[in-house]
Write a structure and sequence with these properties.
The protein is elongated. It has helices spanning about 25-45, 50-55, 60-70, 70-95, 100-115, 120-125, 135-160, 170-180, 190, 195-240. It contains ten helices and no strands. It has one domain (about 25-215): Tetracycline Repressor, domain 2 (Orthogonal Bundle), CATH 1.10.357. Helix 4 (about 70-95) packs parallel to helix 7 (about 135-160).
């Protein structure tokens, strides 16, 4: 059976951590997490046993318990690995440009690129979102908040450049609604690859935001006209009463 190096950070005596460098250990760990994600995807967290996970990962039961302690730790590692990878790639892509629209498009492409290449892991992230508790859950929640804040900042930058008056929170959560569930419907021959989808979704999202200012100004103008007309009528009424 394959084993991980004893010096690895997955020892029960240390907090699990994902090594960003492409080391032999990291590649081996990524493969184990991929196999474990397959099991969780097929059987669900509650339905998957440690024996199922050990068999899929090519490890003995003893080895599995030694390096991962529990299936909760393994699920935590799957989620941390996924979100850490997405964030690292996103930062690299965002560093390549400063145009607000292109940065939002980079965000969308980055998410879809990872999601389509790791559909089972994304399904696990979505369906087992609330399983992790205590420190594990808090750490993953913190990474998710950072991801949300990055997207919020991108939308705020776009709003400032375009003079858009729209809720950034609503826009960001709507975008996540578009991109998070792609694994449930994506068909490569029909829908295209990550680049094609990112272009289309980016157009839909950004054009939707662009339409907001004109609508907002029109509504505000209509409201002001109604208020001015009412004030004018009231003024004429009072004036007539005084005469």
């Amino acid at each position: 059976m394959a084993t991980l190096p004893a010096a690895g950070s997955l020892s029960p005596r240390h907090r699990a951590a994902i090594i960003p460098a492409e080391t032999r250990f990291h590649r081996r760990l990524a493969k184990i997490l991929s196999h474990a994600a397959d099991v969780f995807c097929e059987k669900g967290y509650e339905g998957a046993s440690v024996r199922d996970l050990a068999r899929a990962c090519g490890m003995s039961m003893a080895g599995m318990y030694y390096y991962f302690e529990s299936k909760e730790r393994l699920l935590y590692l799957i989620q941390k690995h996924a979100f850490t990878t997405i964030l690292e790639r996103l930062r690299e892509r965002l560093a390549a440009g400063s145009d607000p629209e292109q940065r939002i498009r980079a965000f969308i492409f980055n998410h879809l690129d990872y999601a389509l290449a790791n559909e089972k892991a994304m399904k696990v992230l979505s369906h087992e979102d609330d399983v992790l508790k205590n420190g594990f859950g808090a750490e993953i929640a913190a990474i998710k908040r950072e991801y949300y804040r990055i997207c919020l900042g991108l939308v705020d930058d776009f709003k400032r450049e375009r003079g858009v008056e729209v809720s950034s929170r609503t826009a960001v959560l709507s975008l996540f609604g578009m991109i998070n569930w792609i694994y449930t419907w994506h068909k490569p021959r029909v829908d295209g690859d990550a680049g094609q989808l990112a272009q289309q979704m980016g157009d839909i999202f950004l054009n939707g935001i662009r339409s907001a200012p004109a609508t907002t100004r029109k509504n505000n103008a209509s409201t002001r006209q109604r208020l001015n007309a009412k004030e004018s009528r009231n003024g004429n009424h009072h004036a007539a009463g005084k005469r």
